[in-house]
Amino acid sequence: MNESFVTVCGNVVADPQGRSTKTGKPFASFRVASTTRRWDAEARGFVDGSTNFVNVIGFNALGANVMNSLKRGDPVVVYGRLRVNQYLAADGKHMTSVELDAHGVGHDLTRGSSVFSRASRPQFEPHDRLADPHILASFDEVEVLDELVGDPAGDHEDTELAAQTDPGSALREEDADTDPYVVTAH
Q: How many domains does the chain have?
C-alpha cells in the first residue's frame, strides 16, 4: 500500500460538525489551519509564512470525542491518512482539497495544558440523557456507582453517610430527565 500518513499541527478553524454517512456511520469533520514559521534575520524574530488548510474527518468514537473536546481556536495535533482530492467545481474551475482521515487527534500541549477524561461510552451529543452518570451507573452498577459516591473500595459502607453530609452526592429521582426512572443503590 502506498498511503501517506502525516501529522499536522495547527488551530481548529471552526467548531467541529457531527454528521453521518449514507449508511449511518457517525463522523465529525473540522478544518485545521497550519501556518509555517521561519526565522527572519532582518527582523530578528520569527515571521509567519503561508497557511495550509486541511479538512479532518474522524469516524466513530474518535469523531464523538472530537465533537465533545474541540472548539474553534484550539491548538491541535492531528495524525492520519492523507488524501488529496481534485474535482471540478460548479463554476467549471479545477479545485484541490486536502483531507486527513484522522487516526489520532489531541490538543497541542506545547501551547497550553489539557485535562484528559476517559469516556465510558463516546457520545456525539454530550447532553444525551443516556450519557448521564446516573444512568450509566445503572448499567455498570459497581464501578460507576463507586466513583459517584466516592467509594473506591467498592464496599458501599459510606453511601448513606455521603448522602447525609453532601445532598448533591446522593442519587435522587428528581435528578431524572423527564422519564419516570429511578436509580437505586445496592
A: 2
Q: Please give the full DSSP string across 71-115, using - where no structure is assigned.
A: -TT-EEEEEEEEEEEEEE-TTS-EEEEEEEEEEEEEE-TTS----
Residues 24 and 72 reside in one and the same domain? yes
pTM score of the predicted model: 0.60
Structural domain harbouring 72: 5-107
Whether residue 120 lies inside any domain: the answer is no
Tens digits of residue pLDDT in 79-111: 999 999 898 889 999 999 899 999 999 999 999
The distance between the two most distant Cα atoms of the chain, rounded to a whole number of Å, is 72
Q: Looking at residue 94, which CATH number applies to its domain?
A: 2.40.50.140
Q: What is the pLDDT of residues 10-39, one digit of tens each?
A: 999 999 999 888 888 889 999 999 998 888
Helix (H) or strand (E) holding 17: strand 17-20
